[in-house]
Design goal:
The complex is a heterodimer of chains A (493) and B (605). With 493 residues, chain A is mainly alpha-helical. Helices cover 55% and strands 1% of the residues of chain A. In chain B, helix 16 (408-421) packs across helix 23. Classes of the chains: A mainly alpha (493), B alpha/beta (605). Chain B: Keywords: Cytoplasmic vesicle, Endosome, Lysosome, Membrane, Protein transport, Transport.
């Protein structure tokens, strides 16, 4: 198998698998797109003679866009909006699609599953929902025995659940003992109808103490899930927390409470909220993240207040030259670090806003730190700072450039920030792999690097080829001439 | 607009007609003129069932989008709310009803819940004091919507936004219940399905519910000759890998790049405007995206949708030649009869021409993406993971993407893919990725990471044994020489990777799952086979050489590339089986991950 980024593996580029989406062959499939485009174009002139307003939809798109429901909704609404008056609006002109052959089906979905009794309301713990309207309900192809019974009290849990599913009158009140209630719940769960399960749970919530209900739910996973969903829906956060607590699902509880910080707008309140979260029983990993989140916001508030003041007072050049585009509040840590490297570079480690302090506090990896810092300093064209990022001194006092990331990537980042060739070539030179170095140098026109590399490789042929690519009489041209005429060099070709 | 539904092996128009009839019946129940107030989400799915003309025939005079405050004035007798059972929608409805000026215009209110009514919602209406204002509270059972001649989807209408969709991945009974219900409806229309196969926890549940429902309705058997020979229920979590991979079919790529909703795609208009009005420079440059319907009703689209994108160019140019030749015929038309003949064909030719023009433009748009370096790099990493290269190490491409702050969804897709292909990540590696993500995108994403861990897409390695390579080899999930132009294997849909879900389907048809017992055991959840008794006299007598028809139901979503692979199997000459596809939702990696994110809307970056 191939490994990305290793140019020595020629197989990689030639294997059919990875060529799948290169499209660089001259006769590849996609030059044919042009062909079909040409064909389309040549036909157009003819078609337009025939039909001025060739409406694509009408002819080939089976009429759907015009006359579709969403189109009609928009149409009615816009007509209302534009006139401000509704009463006398006429309908949008509707393009009626050819209607279907009527004989294709005699069925209607509800006729397949229509309940016999059309009266009575679905809801009720004996409190009827009022309207005895005509309603259709889900499957009842066979008359259940229960229909012949007259008294509510006769209904077993099974029959009750079935009636609920069918939307008939039912009563849960008669399930008084705990045992009966649980039988009812289990029956509802067996029927798998979430609507019915929820209805039973609402009844149990009303009629059982929460301790008992929680205890019973522990062994009833499906009912429990519906109950949690129900509590979430109606926003009973407090009860939900208690439930999780009693279930020993403390991590879920903690996360759920943490989630609420998203609803807090005011940054000071949010900070306090997060501080409060610190005591929750998160998993060790999450606890660290929440701690970091809190620390970050706390700092952002301090930095924001300070920088806002400095900026408006006009004291610092950096803010004058590069006015802040947005507040730093609620930004991710890496963005904050970038900001810090941009506006607070060189501050002593002691300040909250210094890059070094942020790096340490939030345990930012060397790579991330370097990339972020590089991005910020390059944006400011502070090439000296960029240089310093990579410079290390060994014990003899020699300096050397090192990087936790390949120098080819450093070059890319610098280039994206419009670094001048003089800066770029220093880093291109540091790329170890010769082929990669040359290809980068060619991409970014670092002539010196290319020329020197060919010279060092004693590759006269390549040098001659390259001479043909540079401008005649330019300094790089002269440099190549000079090298080629140097009789001291022993060329390999 | 629905003719294409009846071209397939199974006439899905019957299902659509049943749904339309149901709708008419409800509308007629509310006598007199009416206005419909729409939950906007529903207009898309309803568009696949009916057009405005149908509603109009039943006295629907006005249609509005559901909004808070006062309802627009409309001189109608009935106001009908078409809504999903959501609490927040109930509050809006209540507001509408309360602020209605009763003195001025006494109007009747009705609610139609789609796809099911809900206890909770009715209770909320009651709390708001408006439940009594409704004359009709009804439900419109919309479980399976026909999307194409061989495709049905539930479009996840049963799922709640507030609910972490652990549903299909773990098991949410409600959505499974509706799936079972939908399958019962299908059986009522198309006959009992004699054989049920399945793999996964949810599949098991659905099969159990179906069998139970059948017992309950025993005696009211439909006397219909079975259309389907078998049903295969597949859990998405049996194959978490496939949706994470970038689809490489034409339709799959359109979905990956632009997103297909309810059979429509919205495209940047530039390419299309230039085409229509050339020469009239600068006149009315459209700013609205171009909306296009994509289905098999369009001949050319049906031809190219399932091709690997690398084969689309050739198909389009071939088509171009045919059309050009057809137009050229006008020169050879000499007699009046010939000219008449030519003219009579013009509309059809024009349709073909504009269809070709559109797809050439779309292909160009897509090609700009697929030829980009970013696309290539991303695909390379995906293919490395799928072939098992360095899945246990920090991937520098992912690292780079994080450093560049590429969209979070892209990162999550790749990290999850690495995790799935490595049967979980070493704790240290997982922690590393998590830290990088949280530091770069914000700590609040720990909620999303948590969701992904719950679903198993992201997980720490628990055993040292990674069985993905065994699965890959046994099921031949990676084919070295996938032929994209003239495919001979389903692996063409991902240019090398054969979707696991479809391999399971393929093996089931021939030679049967018994041959892969070992692998089935490595995949999560039970596998099973059930038989359903057919009423006497309804046993199908198969003709020699007649294909079997299998309904494959994906619980938790299916991608267009998987659909393409199934269509490929259907069309194989000696395949022996034709497939109809049903799913809870049409998905791609992006929409899937998004559905698992905490507050995806707040994280557009």
């Amino acid at each position: 198998m191939m490994i990305r980024g290793k140019p020595d593996e020629d197989d990689y580029w030639n294997s059919s698998k990875f060529k799948a989406f290169t499209f660089d062959d001259e006769d590849d499939d996609f030059t044919r797109l042009k062909e079909s485009k040409r064909a389309v174009n040549s036909i157009r002139s003819l078609v337009e003679e025939e039909d001025e307003e060739d409406d694509v939809e009408k002819v080939s798109w089976s009429g759907e866009p015009v006359g579709s429901i969403s189109w009609s909704v928009k149409e009615t609404e816009s007509s209302i909006r534009s006139t401000g008056e509704v009463r006398d609006q006429s309908f949008p002109k509707i393009h009626t699609a050819p209607s279907l052959p009527k004989n294709s089906s005699g069925y209607s979905l509800s006729s397949l599953f229509k309940g016999k009794a059309k009266t009575g309301s679905f809801q009720s713990f004996s409190e009827s929902f009022g309207d005895p309207s005509i309603r259709n309900y889900a499957p009842e192809l066979r008359k259940p025995k229960s229909e012949y019974k007259d008294y509510v009290s006769d209904w077993t849990p099974e029959e009750t659940v079935k009636r609920m599913q069918q939307g008939k009158v039912y009563s849960l009140e008669k399930f008084r003992s705990l045992q009966d209630k649980l039988l009812l719940l289990d029956e509802a769960v067996n029927a798998h109808d979430g609507n019915v399960i929820t209805a039973v749970l609402i009844y149990l919530k009303k009629s059982l103490s929460k301790e008992i209900l929680f205890r019973e739910l522990i062994t009833r996973e499906i009912a429990l899930r519906h109950y949690i969903h129900y509590l979430k829906e109606i926003g009973e956060q407090k009860l939900l927390v208690e439930l999780f607590k009693s279930m020993d699902r403390t991590e879920d509880m903690a996360l759920m409470q943490y989630r609420d910080h998203l609803n807090v707008r005011d940054e000071n309140k949010k900070r306090d909220f997060l501080k409060n979260c610190l005591s929750f029983p998160f998993s060790p990993d999450d606890a660290t993240h929440v701690q970091d989140h809190y620390t970050l916001l706390e700092r952002q508030i301090i930095i924001e207040a300070n920088d806002k003041q400095v900026e408006s007072s006009g004291q610092a050049d950096i803010f004058k030259k590069y006015p802040r585009k947005a507040s730093i509040l609620n930004m991710p840590i890496i963005t904050t670090l970038y900001y810090s490297c941009f506006y607070h570079y060189g501050e002593s480690d002691g300040t909250f806003s210094s890059p070094a302090n942020i790096r340490k506090t939030f345990r930012i990896s060397d790579k991330q730190f370097l990339l972020t810092c590089l991005g910020a300093r390059a944006k400011l064209k502070a090439w000296f700072d960029v240089d310093a990022l990579f410079t290390t001194k060994n014990w003899l006092g020699y300096t050397k450039k090192r990087s936790p990331i390949g120098f080819h990537r450093i070059v890319d980042i610098l280039q994206k920030n419009n670094a001048p060739v003089q800066v770029l070539q220093d880093y291109v030179n540091l790329v170890e792999d010769v082929e990669q170095k040359i290809s980068l140098a060619q991409k970014y026109k670092c002539h010196d690097v290319i020329i020197n590399t060919y010279r060092d490789l004693k590759d006269r042929q390549q040098l001659i080829v390259y001479r043909g690519k540079v401008e005649r009489g330019s300094s790089e041209y002269r440099k190549i001439e000079e090298i080629l005429s140097n009789s001291q060099l022993r060329w390999k070709n | 607009m629905s003719a294409h539904l009846s071209y397939g092996r199974v006439n899905l128009n019957i299902l659509r007609e049943a749904a339309r009839k149901e709708l008419r019946e409800f509308l007629d129940k509310c006598g007199g003129s009416k206005a419909i107030v729409w939950d906007e989400y529903l207009t898309g799915p309803f568009g696949l069932i009916a057009q405005y003309s149908l509603l109009k025939e039943h006295e629907v005079e006005k249609m509005f989008t559901l909004k808070g405050g006062r309802l627009p004035a409309a001189d109608v007798k009935n106001i009908i709310f078409f809504v999903r059972p959501r609490l927040e929608l109930m509050d809006i409805i209540a507001e509408n009803v309360i602020s209605e000026d009763k003195m001025h215009s006494p109007r009747d209110f009705h609610i139609l819940f789609v796809p099911r009514r809900s206890m909770l919602c009715e209770q909320r209406l009651k709390e708001q004091g408006v439940l009594g204002s409704f004359i009709n509270i009804d439900e419109y059972i919309l479980d399976l919507i026909p999307y194409d001649g061989d495709l049905l989807s539930m479009e996840d209408m049963h799922i709640d936004t507030t609910h972490i969709p652990e549903c299909y991945l773990e098991s949410d009974q409600t959505s499974l219940y509706h799936t079972a219900k939908g399958l019962m409806t299908l059986q009522a229309l198309y006959g009992t399905i004699p054989q049920i196969f399945g793999k996964g926890e949810c599949a098991r549940h659905v099969a159990n519910m179906m069998l139970r429902m059948k017992r309950e309705f025993a005696g009211s058997q439909t006397q219909i000759l079975p259309v389907f020979d078998s049903l295969l229920l597949l859990d998405r979590n049996v194959d978490l890998l496939t949706p994470l991979a970038t689809q490489l079919t034409y339709e799959g790529l359109i979905d990956e790049v632009y997103g297909i909703t309810n059979g429509y795609v919205k495209l940047p208009p530039e390419k299309f405007s230039a085409q229509k009005k050339q020469g009239e420079a600068g006149k009315d440059l459209p700013t609205e995206p171009k909306k296009m319907q994509l289905n098999s009703a369009e001949e050319l689209y049906a031809e190219i949708r399932d091709k690997n994108f690398n084969g689309v160019g050739a198909a389009l140019s071939k088509k171009a030649k045919i059309i050009s030749a057809a137009f050229e015929e006008r020169h050879s038309a000499k007699t009046v009869g010939e000219i008449k003949q030519f003219v009579s064909q013009l509309p059809h030719m024009q349709a073909a021409r504009s269809s070709l023009a559109n797809h050439t433009s779309i292909a160009e748009l897509i090609k700009d993406i697929t030829t980009s370096e970013a696309f290539f790099d991303n695909l390379t990493v995906e293919q490395e993971f799928m072939t098992g290269v360095d899945t246990d190490k920090v991937n520098t491409y992912i690292e780079d993407c994080i450093a560049q702050k590429d969209p979070l969804i892209k990162i999550l897709r790749l990290v999850c893919m690495q995790s799935v292909c490595n049967n979980g990540l070493k704790q240290k590696l997982l922690d590393y990725y998590k830290r990088e993500i949280l530091q770069t995108y914000g700590y609040e994403h720990m909620l999303t990471l948590n969701n992904l861990e719950k679903t198993g897409l992201l997980k720490p390695q628990t055993s040292t044994r990674n069985n993905y390579p065994t699965i890959r080899k046994t099921l031949k999930l990676w084919m070295e020489d996938a032929n994209e132009q003239n495919p001979n294997d389903i692996s063409y849909v991902y240019s090398g990777y054969a979707p696991l879900s479809i391999r399971l389907t393929q093996v089931l048809a021939r030679p049967g799952w018994r041959s892969i017992e070992e692998v089935l055991k490595m995949l999560p959840g039970p596998h099973f086979e059930e038989r359903q008794q057919l009423p006497a006299g309804l046993h199908k007598k198969r003709q020699q050489g007649e294909n079997r028809t299998t309904l494959v139901f994906f619980l938790g979503g299916v991608t267009y590339a998987e659909i393409a692979a199934l269509r490929f199997l259907s069309q194989m000459e000696d395949g022996g089986t034709e497939y109809i596809i049903a799913t809870t939702k049409l998905i791609n990696g992006t929409s899937w991950i998004k559905s698992l994110m905490d507050r995806p809307e707040a994280q557009a970056s």
